[in-house]
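Hi everyone,

Forwarding the result from last night's run.
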Amino acid sequence: MDSKISYLQIIQGIINRLASNSFLLQGWSVTLVSAIVALGVKDAQKPFVLLAYFPAVMFWILDAYFLSEEKRFRALYDLVSNQDPGLIGFSLDVKHVANFSNSWPRSFFTGTLVFFHGFIVATILIVLAVT
């Protein structure tokens, strides 16, 4: 039973790191996109403001990846927590718990990511329309 608890703690640590990475990506996304837009607006250069779409979309993609991996490790955690301690393989391979609900494309269009990153993309569009 102690080995099962240790294994679950390792999985939980991975989940926590993935969630932390996602949070940091969102902070960097806001910071970098805001800086690029501010520089573009200051000099009234629309092509420079258009450049802000690249990091906005790339951070959205990375955030979706981290969310999909986090969902996979949560599924692994649920699987292991319901298993008999003698049947646990102690593998961190999440391929066997992968399904459409925790795939990368599905995570890309999750409500929270669409709201957060969509707001950033919409803000860039508004800035382009106003300048």
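The CA atoms of residues 37 and 127 lie 8 Å apart.

Cheers,
N.
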